[in-house]
Design a protein that fits this description.
The chain has eight helices and no strands. By secondary structure, it is mostly helical. It has a single domain, classed as Glycerol uptake facilitator protein (Up-down Bundle). Helix 1 packs across helix 7 and helix 2 crosses helix 6. The protein starts with a helix and ends in a 5-residue tail after the last helix.
């Protein structure tokens, strides 16, 4: 239960930060910096307990890579989604009358942007947080948080920059994205997580 609670808390803080910095008078153009920083501090805070995934696509990648028990995958996903839903509810309460306008996404570019951003995130996580060749490093949280920040700056204007099915759920509840577009995030992000795991295993066949 401790692992699942940590995943809930980390996802909650990440999604709450997204909502509070994007909706209404938020952080404006600096929102990706706050969002990447939120992920970084939560990875440092909970990585030693749960691995600090806070993202169903990352959990999928870590499981396929062989560093997450199959029995933990669904409970991790449930904890992450519940954390995102709780955060969305808090943001809507705190923001009050602030109105968010859902983005009009172009399916193909948004799908590709989500795929690329999530692949980069999962690939970095696998290399800095699960590889025996980087075991014990102290910069893994910084690398993970900065990946999200960079991808959000680079691709957020195309897809909304979720790179995370739990985040996608949260921003949909907060009316930042349309319900009809949720499948783009689920398909693109989970496929990217799976490919990141296969890529890591191909490049590092000795890293079991």
């Amino acid at each position: 239960m401790k692992k699942y609670l940590v995943e809930f808390i980390g996802t909650f803080v990440l999604v709450m930060t997204i909502g509070m910095t994007v909706i209404g008078t938020g952080a404006g153009a600096l929102a990706p910096l706050a969002i990447g920083s939120a992920l970084m501090i939560m990875v440092y805070a909970g990585g030693h307990v749960s691995g600090g995934h806070y993202n169903p696509a990352v959990t999928l990648a870590v499981w396929l890579r062989g560093r997450c028990s199959a029995a933990d995958v669904v409970p991790y996903w449930i904890s992450q989604i519940l954390g995102a839903l709780a955060a969305a509810s808090v943001v809507l309460f705190l923001k009050g009358d602030a109105v968010a306008t859902p983005a009009d996404l172009k399916v193909a570019p948004a799908l590709l942007a989500e795929f690329i951003g999530t692949f980069a995130l999962a690939y970095v996580v696998l290399n800095v947080a699960t590889s025996k060749n980087t075991a014990g490093n102290s910069n893994y949280g910084l690398a993970i948080g900065f990946t999200v920040m960079v991808m959000a700056f680079a691709l957020g204007g195309v897809s909304g920059g979720a790179f995370n099915p739990a985040v996608a759920t949260g921003i949909t509840v907060m009316h930042l994205e349309k319900v009809a577009n949720l499948w783009i995030y689920l398909a693109g992000d989970l496929a990217a997580g799976a490919l990141a795991a296969l890529t890591f295993k191909f490049i590092n066949p000795e890293d079991k």
